[in-house]
Amino acid sequence: xxxxxxxxxxxxxxxxxxxxxxxxxxxxxxxxxxxxxxxxxxxxxxxxxxxxxxxxxxxxxxxxxxxxxxxxxxxxxxxxxxxxxxxxxxxxxxxxxxxxxxxxxxxxxxxxxxxxxxxxxxxxxxxxxxxxxxxxxxxxxxxxxxxxxxxxxxxxxxxxxxxxxxxxxxxxxxxxxxxxxxxxxxxxxxxxxxxxxxxxxxxxxxxxxxxxxxxxxxxxxxxxxxxx
Length: 228
Description:
The chain is an alpha/beta fold. The protein has one domain (2-227): 3-Layer(aba) Sandwich (Rossmann fold). It is built from 4 helices and 9 strands. It has helices spanning 2-8, 52-60, 113-119, 146-159; strands spanning 19-22, 30-33, 40-44, 66-70, 84-87, 104-108, 130-138, 160-167, 182-189. It has a 7-stranded mixed sheet with strand order 5-4-3-6-7-9-8. It has a two-stranded antiparallel sheet with strand order 1-2. The model has no long low-confidence stretch (mean pLDDT 96).
């Protein structure tokens, strides 16, 4: 079971020149594919901190992108802009995401609720509206088995390519069956590619110039299971 789990979390190889970092070089940043960034952004679990990734996105698009931000734990977001709309809502199901556009980028850090959200998806066609999905996975926040998590990742892998993964060093380096307790993953919809990706990653992560430790006072987490 653990080998299947690691296989499901082995990214496809994409040259670094096609990747970019959005947000700060610490916690709150995401590594995504440059060509699959779109000007329609949905961000979930923004918290009460300065939303640096969303500010960066506004700068990249000279203020002309649209950002929908969600977090039921706060009443107001610190980012105010004509093209930013804040919703004081938590999300637990795919319907709660309230995605009304197509070809969107999703950024998600919902503190463990991601399992319930993705596990509850029965019709995988609902993923068609998402061009790129960056999500923080919290193994340590909820009591789910390898088999249950494998089911979620197999569902995601059916519609998306996993193109990047990073361990969050705020968490245990090997707290979930030898893997980090919290990981950050980026998926891109398979429909975005003219030809299917076939080559799996062969380099050890993190990637210099793209990844950064979430907690700067600790070393980053090496991810190498696909090299073993």
